[in-house]
Amino acid sequence: MKYTEDNGAIPVAPLETPTQTEQPILVYDIDGKRYINLTNACTLKCKFCPKHNGSWNVKGYELALDFNPKANDIIDKLGDLTEIEEVVFCGFGESTLRLKELINIATHLKQWGKKTRLNTDGLGNLVHHRNILPDLTTCVDALSISLNAQNEEVYEQHCCPTLSGSYEALLGFIKAAPTYIDDVTVTAIEGLEGVDVHACENLAEQFGVKFRKRYLDEVG
Ligand code: SF4
Q1: Is 102 in the pocket of ligand 1 (CB under 6 A)?
Q2: 22, 145, 189, 199: least surrounded by Cβ within 10 Å?
Q3: What is the CATH number of the domain that holds 135?
């Protein structure tokens, strides 16, 4: 079992990270948005994830990291944000595993008047054994939560969570999220065996959040 985050107490999916031969990419741009690559650690080991299928590349950016950057490492790399419409926490890892760093960076971004979005697996409350949403309410404007499946069986089949009770915890996170964050979207991927995207959309509707369909092999 590997561990991440400063208190060293959070279990994550085992992962072989390629040896870093070039400068790590901590910040990258896609379509006018600036993305933050905070960690490679995940609580899931999704079978459809490029990093578990030999690729760490997103739209030309190699996102493998062989260390967990500190908030100041990221802040120093953010650069000129004048033309950037939104800053998104999203790499090949789960940013809520680095919660303190995430909040620190997001708080800086809000002080600079930037819109922030967190792309997450929705397992932050399960991992941290508490409701982390109040911590995010003042520094995260939008949440994009990977639902990925309409039921636990299909979720386990594709996402291979390391923690028991992950799907139930994910649904609880989605249900609670709109109390703290105004803009909440859940996503599911079209084209995965057994995934009923319409049923996922119906779940989103029941929870009163938005839904976005994604496509297999389309990353970023
Ligand atoms: S949560 Fe995201 S980064 Fe982590 S294994 Fe799944 S698809 Fe990959």
Answers
A1: no
A2: 22
A3: 3.20.20.70
